[in-house]
# Entry
Amino acid sequence: MNRKNLKIGLFGFGCVGYGLHEVLLKTPGLKANIKLICVKDPEKKRQISEEHFTFDKNEILEDEDINTVVELIDDADAAFEIVKTALMKGKSVVTANKKMIAEHFSELLQLQKQYNVPLLYEAACCASIPIIRNLEEYYDNDLLESVEGIVNGSTNYILTQTADEGKSYEEALKDAQNKGFAESNPILDTGGFDAKYKLLLLVAHAFGVIVKPNDIYNIGINKLGILELNYAKEKGLKIKLVAFAEKNQEGQITSFVLPKFVDKHDKLFAVDDVFNGVKTKSFFSDIQFFVGKGAGAYPTASAVLSDISALSYDYRYEYKKLNTNDKLASDEDIYLKVMLRHDLEHAPCFKKYFDEIHESYLSNENGYIIGIISLKHIKEISNKKNAEWSLVLFEVVKRN
Ligand code: HSE
# Structure
């Protein structure tokens, strides 16, 4: 098959941009060359010579010779402007910016259609795991029931290093930053926002449903405390930050990002450090499991490279599952079995939010409640100012 020649304009030369540059040099079979790289800071010392760089985005966007834009910058708003202009000028685009895609999904769909150009973003979700293309192509007819996974490398690294290696949270976060795993604003990782943006992409390609970031509830790992970490240890469990989406037979989708207790029978139990893991469950094939490095220069660059390669034979997402009548389930219909750790003051008030209480505990400092609670009530607890609490999921509870 004849591959297209790709002339690439690259935006961003951070960890992933540099990784891509290296990876492309090692892949000469692919007829793809970086013509120019646009970066922000003229003062910064870079690993390759100056003539490769520009500081003016229009030198790429207005160059008709450049048919492909690879966007790997950090700022989601600036990234959207670049991607939008590139698509409008008929250039194919590859991006790894999950926040940007999640915030502008509908508009990006429209632009692809209107200007008849592809936008690929495998690297935006779970880095080296080819999950988007699998959901899009492989699961286009089997009845997919759920997608559940660890989709953020930094938080998984922090959880592993604190629970198994005895590092402090701060030390583990610093390591994740030094290794190039974390976002520049690490609250995006630790607060579960990055995982939510990725989940939004998974929901779109798994179920054909486009939602907005605010529609998916997320709790990160930044509020976890000793009580729940010790509870996990005593019971032989691990706490993992899990992104979850499940469709019921009425086409209603339960979707959230929460820290979750996982036991040794769960495939996610052994997914440690920077690795991500995604379980799919579908009617015919039952459970399948994808695993791979979820962050870092080369794992992310490998997914960008795969998208570039796909563009060279004119691949594009067809979004075959879009326009279904499926939608997110209402918060009052979603019931979860959780452990809620709370301060002493709020113990009586928080108990009232539970439908069932299986266990509760109080010390001189704090306490916990284990039981069943609706997502609606969890959100009400989240809105309480001045309350000290955290929550870890055991499981989603089926109720009719
Ligand atoms: N900060 C992200 C993570 C980078 O840790 O997973 C990869 O998307």
Summary: Residues 6-126 form a domain with the Rossmann fold fold (CATH 3.40.50.720). The pocket of L-homoserine is lined by residues 127, 152-154, 181-183, 189, 194, 294-295 (CB under 6 Å). The radius of gyration is 22 Å. The chain has a mean pLDDT of 96.
